[in-house]
Amino acid sequence: MVRICRQKIFSTLFTVAFLLFFGTAIAQTSPQGLSLQGRILDSSNNPLEDASVAFTVQIVSPGAEECVLYEETHTLNMTGSGGVFALPVGAGTRSGAAFEDTSTLAQVFNNGSGQINSLTCSSGNSYTPASGAKRKIKMTFDNGGGPQVVTQTLDVQAVPYALYADTLRGKSPSDFLQTSTSTTQAKIDNLATNANYNELLALIAGTSANYTLANGGNFTPATDVDFNGKKIIDLAAPTLGTDATNKTYVDTKFGGATFDQTGLANGQSVRWNQALTKWEVYTPATSQWITTGNDIYYNTGKVGIGTTNPSSKLHVSATDTQTSGSTSVFRITPTYNQTSGNAANTDLVISRTETAVGSGDQRFIDAKVGGSSKFQVFTDGSILAGNSSGAYGKYEFLDGSIVMSNNQSLRMLDNASNVVSTVTLTSGNNLQLGGSAVSGSTMYYVLNGTGSHQFFTGSTPTEKMRIDSNGNVGIGTTNPTTGTRLDITGTGAASSSIIIPRDTVANRPTTGVNGMMRYATDTNKFEAYQNGAWTDMITSSTASSVAAGNGTASAPSISFSGDTNTGFYSNGADTIGIAANGANVFNISSTALSSPTTGGALITSGNGTAAAPTFSFSGDPDTGWFRPAADTMAASTAGSERVRITSSGTIGVGTSVPTGTLHLNDGSGGLTETHWSSSATGISSTDGLFVGLNNISGDAYVWNNENTPLKFATTGTERMRIAADGSVGIG
Prior knowledge:
Strand order of the largest sheet: 23-24-25-26-27-28-29-30
Radius of gyration: 54 Å
Number of strands: 51
Largest sheet: 8 strands, mixed
Oligomer: single chain
């Protein structure tokens, strides 16, 4: 039962049936739809028959997450309907967002779809249907008074009308052949024809007449066999001249030319005789090279390549006159293909044994141009690049070091040979990064006589940072404060702040160390790690505090970046001074909040309302005093005005427009009365004197509950009395 508030109160009784929209023809395609029916009656069993009723239907997942899988709306004219409605789900106007606005009913009821993402859920944003999972249908309707939720949900126990069936007569999808662009029913039918089917069986049995046997039998093709550029491999050794051959040739041809084997003997070689256009065997002349197995060697004399007068064990000489391209005299071009193992490879090894050497230079390499050394590698590990004399070399590498003369540079080039960076030792023995050859700024590193490290940057370098001999770092200052490890100095909007590390509370360091500081971006607080735990640096807790100087009214200790003479300062022991525009306007002490002079600053507040009065109580925020209008005060209880004092001094109780000095009114239609009582005789509703007005009958009354007379006097003299028994005395 659902109660819906508008001009009427409706309760919704639903009888819901799912109906398939299909005809009796078996071949007809099942539609993407189902029917939701019901009836809406009010509490007096009167039907809802408004001219326009908007329905919203949702299909949701069955669990507590209730992810919306499908949503649509319908608008019905229910005039004369008797409250009965029928909604063709699947034919309405789609609504919602993302999946529920675009999904089909087949997708909604598909339990094999896997995880569905980007959904609107009570919890989370995804749903993975289980095998055999049901769905729920939820509905709301609006007849002009706002959407009314039908608390009853409909469980769909089975996939309706096979929009997406899990089985067919107990068979799962894996039991069927699914067609595709490659696998079609027409292709399967073609294979099943009598001729094709019989030939397929013959291929399996090896009795097909269309193909030769792969193992045994005779191969008697009627025409040439084209191997399409492929080769026949793994042949047996031929025994006849007509046999297909392997690499053991049996005829007297070699590459199509005659192979003359006359005089064939051990140790002979084969050569090509161009004059007789044939291959022939011959006995080569005696060689100085000696062969042993696969090795060849020459132990005596010298080897010359390009020269008939070698001057060393291996002498390579060449003269090149070509004017384009590139040439080389000696190349080492190994190729390694080591897919596993731990082999170590070296392309050139110079292994020198020094039993005894002279006092002259000992070199591994001496590369020269025009007889002048340009690159030398010495046996002590030194490398000299440049002129032949070390005194004029551009670079020396001595025992792993790089030595540069003053004003010499190391240059880094890009692929286009442009200088992108330089390292220079200046005439003042300063290390310079960048410089005139590089666009942009220059950085100097200077080690001065006091042991300080200085860093200069800029196109006209100026000092930006210094590390002094004590290890103190100064940024923006050349004299870091003693005892301060990091002294950052800066003025102006562009240089007067620092940013400490910022991140969420969850990303605090895994292991905290006392003294760490950071800023938590999700709580907007500074944090410090102290005494083994993270704590807020600025907090109202007594566990930590922020200390500042005493300050003055013109320069308060705590002020604002754009208003430095307004803020808080210490105005004496146990007193907080509040300054505005450099003047003391309030003091907060242990006993009072006061203005420093008579007629000083004022404490004001907002007007408030009856429901949220300006002056209220911590446990009762809708009870207190407020300002309903200019020069007017009012008191409220439970969020409603009870008493008003106007600008003329009149007081209204139960009325906001008092017409007398004291105006009492009972707006509830009961009794308006005043009650006088005495603790001596009792203060209950049966004690004392009542004067009032009966708002129902209109009677005015004076009601004495005590056993005492009522007295009436003028000019200080009693004029009339009504005794306790009701007798009246006048005069």
